[in-house]
Amino acid sequence: MKKITLLGLCMFFFVYTLKAQGEIKHQTQQLEAIQVGNYTAYLTQQSSSGTYEGGLDVLLYKITNFKEYTIQPGVHKEIYMLFGEDPDRPDDHKETMFLPDNEAFPITYVQKVYEGSPAMQKEIGYSPRINRLSDGNRIVFIDGKIFMIEDWVDKDNYKLEAVLEFQAKKMGGLKKMKEVMKSPKKMKAMQPHKVLQEYLDNAYNKQQEVYAKWIKSPKNAALIENIDQIREFIIGAINKQRDDWYNSAEYKRIKERNASASQSDLESRVTINNNTGKDIYIYEEGSRNGSRVSANGRGTFNCKKNQYYSFSGNSSASNGTLIVGANQSCGATVNVN
């Protein structure tokens, strides 16, 4: 009887495991639980002992829009966010776009832009740009939360920065203070690193399985090939246009004029090195406003007028020490020892 019961439990566990693996959702499916609006970023840094230190990110995180993935309309999405913007400078806010990392079974969404100008994209097509820096910035959706990742290398090598939770109402100062106080316990209970890693492990295995079958379809293989060809063509066109500019007679004339202007400017200025070990202030003849040159630093100044130095930022040319005589050190370097 015990053997039958044990066998039954083993079979149940095996079936349950297979069922659980089969229910792994890719990121576009997980996206169904994500809402447009503001999100609160709970920081996930840990002490050397592994204890969550808590805290909230003061920057703005807001999903502004979902659009159909231009390359696969109806299959995946383009996600637009205000991602780490300064809440006190709304005029500077710029949307960041995130795209799926895999056409068959995405396990992350990656910060991306499309190659080329809008005109080139419309004429030639769309291909996500490969960028070593921005490709390390990723987000993962799990059960309505957004896991914010930096420095992504692969599923086992990345940095989890924060977990974003939807914020239905604006959080006031007192509420934020309370959330900061509660955040260490909240992260301890959530165990975001464990949750994320378990998802990535299972989803990656599923991705490999699904993609291996998906890419065997001639239609899907052609899609990937076309994405790569569009990228190569646009980059080649941009490089050719750049080379045409560089080789043009007009570009060479402009460079010569710029060099001449730079040389003319250099010849009308003097460089002053501060070797005194203290900050000094340079005052132009007749001026009461000094320009600071830090200890062991340097600065360039008008050589057409007398220049004086002082150790005081509340001095004037008349109270300073003459170091550059008008029209005497143009294009040269003067040391203040």
State the main characteristics.
337 residues; alpha+beta; four-stranded antiparallel sheet
Reading the helices and strands in chain order gives HHEEEEEHEEEHHHHEEEEEEE
Low-confidence stretches: 6-21
Indicate the multimeric state. Answer: single chain
Tell me what portion of residues adopts beta-strand conformation.
25-35%
Q: State the strand order across the main sheet.
A: 1-2-3-4-5-6-7-8
* Biggest beta-sheet profile: 8 strands, antiparallel, barrel
C-alpha geometry: flat
What does this structure look like?
The protein is α+β, with helices and mostly antiparallel strands and 337 residues long. The protein contains seven helices and 15 strands. The protein has helices spanning 2-22, 27-30, 118-124, 173-190, 192-214, 218-247, 249-267; strands at 37-43, 60-68, 77-85, 95-100, 109-112, 138-142, 145-154, 157-166, 269-274, 280-284, 291-293, 298-302, 307-310, 321-324, 333-336. An eight-stranded antiparallel barrel has the order 1-2-3-4-5-6-7-8. Strands 11-10-13-14 form a four-stranded antiparallel β-sheet, with no helix packed on it. Strand 4 (95-100) and strand 5 form a beta hairpin. The longest helix is centred in the C-terminal third of the chain and has 30 residues, at 218-247.
In short:
The chain is α+β, with helices and mostly antiparallel strands. Helices cover 36% and strands 27% of the residues. The longest helix is centred in the last third of the chain and has 30 residues, at 218-247.
